[in-house]
Hints:
Blueprint lengths: L2 H14 L6 H10 L10 H14 L9 H15 L7 H13 L4 E6 L6 E6 L4 E6 L11 H12 L3 E6 H6 L7 H14 L1
Parallel strand pairs: 3-4
Antiparallel strand pairs: 1-2, 2-3
Amino acid sequence: IPERAAIQVVFAMCMTSTVGNHSRLLRFLFRKIGAGTAWEKQRVRVFQIWLSQLLQFPWLDCRLKRRCIDAGLRAWCLHRGGYGCPHPEEVREISAVLDTMMVEHQSFVPVKHTAYEVDLVIGDRKVALLVSSETARNTLTPVGGTLLQIKHLQDRGWRCLVIPLRAWRGLPVAPDTARPQYLRALLDVLQT
């Protein structure tokens, strides 16, 4: 199995929570990551796998090579625009709209024992709104790293809703009703 395929399979195992079911396969594939040079084209993905190891399968006795983690962290931070929220301006806009709607919330909340920061937390419950550009083109459902982040947060008891960046930017700002109506519809989903 080539290193590129090992990265893809381990990432898929992290997404589907099958790391415990196939621990021998995981160990075999995990040892291939960083052995060649294919990981250099997927630095962000390799860093996400390392995060998954810390959060999902810390029992695995294999470790990623330090050079993979360092380069992956650098790429992940560049991809997200830093350690925190990848879209801070939009989060501030959404926070302002939630303020006008009188919805209790907090912005830029770090999640304990993870590398993640939740964009918006609604009320005092573990309900997160995440602004993301990593969405499927036609359905606007989360994919890739955002989907893995949601998986990690759900494993810790969070309920996550994604606000697609493209959809938020597409809403008109001028009529005061478009953005609050969109957020109200999202918040109504939480009630069901």
